[in-house]
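YM 10:42: RNase H type-1 domain-containing protein sequence, as discussed on the call
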Amino acid sequence: MVPDTDRIVHVLKFRLSDYCTVFQAELFGIYQAFCKDFRGLMVFDLSLYLLQIRHFCLNWVRAHSGVYGNEMADLFAKEATMLPFFDYDLCPVSFGKSIVKNIARYNWNQNWLTSENGRRTKVFFPSIYYRLSLDIKMDFISCVVKTVVGNRIY
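YM 10:58: structure's back
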């Protein structure tokens, strides 16, 4: 957009994979805005390109606050989700970690459910998922469980 006007100069739409983070989307948008001039030619040296620009400014805008440019960007982003192909699909580290964590929890829960050990403890915690949903400190849990099931606390 042209500063101090509501005139849209050029619109670029890109679809990111569903597991991409908001941070990735913001950085990809900034990268694409600076790496393509408006004739569609790729600019290979971003720093050289930025030196040719006399003035640019990035500002944070509260979401859905009625700022015209931001509302238009939200509309274009929504339209971009309907594009048939991904323009960017690199998996963020956080997504990979969550997959590994979910697999580990699933295996842990399967072991817990099929184990013959801990029958008294299973009364309080029928599944690993239930235990993880509780917002209590592990020290407190281990103290109560050891007391209830008869183990000594030293």
